[in-house]
Amino acid sequence: MYIAVKGGEAAIAASRDLLSQARRGDLDVPRLEVAQVREQMGLLVGRVMAEASLYDPELAALALVQAQGDPIEAAFLLRAYRTTLPRLANSEPLDTGHMRARRRVSAIFKDLPGGQVLGPTYDYTQRLLDFGLLHPDVAEPNLDAVRPARRSVEPGDGAVPHALQGLITEGLVEPAQPSAGDPEPVDITRDPPRYPLPRSGRLQMLARADEGWVLGMGYATQRGYGHTHPFGGDIRFGSVAVSLVPDELDFAIEVGEVDLTECQMLNQFVGSAELPPQFTRGYGLVMGHGERKAMAMSLVDRALRGDEFGELPQSPAQEQEFVLPQGDSVEASGFVQHLKLPHYVTFESELQVIRQLRAEGQARAAAQEEDA
């Protein structure tokens, strides 16, 4: 039970002023611009877009500046804004096989069509602090030679087929097929989740779940809490065209591009009465450059598919009603932080109960001493 607080308008206004001062920081330091966050903190911007389920790098950067870099608060702000937007059209399914890949690796092939494209990654850095960044004017690299190369990329360059296609053709990896009857995917942004969710709903919830939670669940499957023995089949990051069919046309047109990270993880499956031995797949797809999230998502996706392969759930990572609701950072944050709101009446009632129980206990103890 909550109690309305009256007469606190002045205190609330003062709190907001203090928040503005805290956000601005030292006035002698230049103000952080939204464009700087968008261009130079792309991994964080991508995480906020994914957890807010809204692709808009500029607004995600704005939310981060407003939230002082708190990704959960920023996702909350961006998701709240998302609810005000009309849905004008539904896009066609994205074709990640024609992604203009800026990074694409596979852990199971040495040579593969399109080659390994290392791209921008921290995988090959030493993970040591670069103190040169404290003096950006001195440490700034010469990018003049890079810019012409980036401008010279033509549409379609970098498109590479999925690494698993050959194994799928051989029947060694399960094919991607629509569910029986090819039903319309559920939309968790319009309809509350009802468990058990189909895979389309599970993937939506995982895509916008808190990265730390999904990473923890994925790690749990690797530590034995799930039937997984994963291999990185195809991990890629790049731009994918977005197309839609306008009402006045009978064909699709491209309306833009989005940056996405996709991961397909392979897991060994010894077969069953219905299915032959093969590799099964887990799938992850997130907005922006988010390999860690996409990989963890693919691990959890495979763990949640256990019923398709006759696997009995033996761990929390295989139970969708445990994994999915707790992964929503906005819901989880709100439910935890509501404990800061007034609970005077509730606490007072429980305090009276505790006092009464103590008094009754003392009375019984006193009566037992008299009887003795």
Task: Spell out the key features of this protein.
single chain, four-stranded antiparallel β-sheet, 2 domains, 372 residues, alpha+beta, 14 helices, globular
Topology:
Elements: H1 9-24, H2 34-40, H3 42-52, H4 57-66, H5 71-82, E1 100-105, H6 136-139, H7 146-151, H8 165-170, H9 199-207, H10 211-222, E2 230-244, E3 253-269, E4 278-287, H11 291-304, H12 320-326, H13 329-337, H14 344-371
Antiparallel strand pairs: 1-2, 2-3, 3-4
Number of helix segments?
14
- The spatial strand order of the largest sheet comes to 1-2-3-4
Helical coverage, percent range: 40-55%
Give the strand tally.
4
Structural class: alpha+beta
Radius of gyration: 26 Å
Distance from N terminus to C terminus (CA atoms, Å) equals 45 Å
Q: Describe the global form.
A: globular
Pick out the low-confidence regions.
148-156
What is the percentage of strand-forming residues?
Answer: 5-15%
Sheet of most strands: 4 strands, antiparallel
Series of secondary-structure elements, N-terminal to C-terminal: HHHHHEHHHHHEEEHHHH
Number of domains: 2
Summed over residues and divided by their number, the pLDDT gives a mean of 89
